[in-house]
Amino acid sequence: MLLRQTWWMTDRPPLEHFLGLWFGVRQFEGVDPAKAVAPVMRFNHPVSETFDNDVQVLVMEQQGVWQWGQTAEGRFVERENEPDVRWRVIGENADEFWLHHAAFEAVTDLPASRSAQLFDEATIARIKREVAPLPCGTWTWPGTTQTMHYRDASVVMICEDAGDYWVVASAPQEADLDWLDELNLTWDESDTRLTSES
To answer: Is the pTM above the cut of 0.85?
Structure first.
């Protein structure tokens, strides 16, 4: 088996490595992680000068249904944007938090993509054998659990709700998803190979 290039094989931190790989971001040294990720955000949006009691809201989902923020103690949190819904601690540090946001933007915006709903656990296990977990935590949006994974330049989001799984895999080029295509899965939601061939 060929050794795959991973961020820990470089001298660059994970956030810097993946921003370069996915978005071509090259100027990073000394840049605050939030400022480094903000220019690539298309789906979710950075928020400034917005507070919910002692939580500073940092990011808002595009339709306003979900929020991410930071407590006065420095912990990163998330919640559904509804009255009286409590903030949930994510357990990520600043680099992990902003890497997670960059990964979400990559999985929803990179040009090569596959997505499917209602995969079973056996299929998820097959996919997970081919990827590594991205060094960030677990969110509860857009699924009850949402985790990010990667293989080379590809990023894979796996969401689970009551035993049903939604998977979105994206990459800068179609060839970056060859490993996934070799699994011969049925992508019932989207497959950019079909649109690129037409």
So the answer is: yes
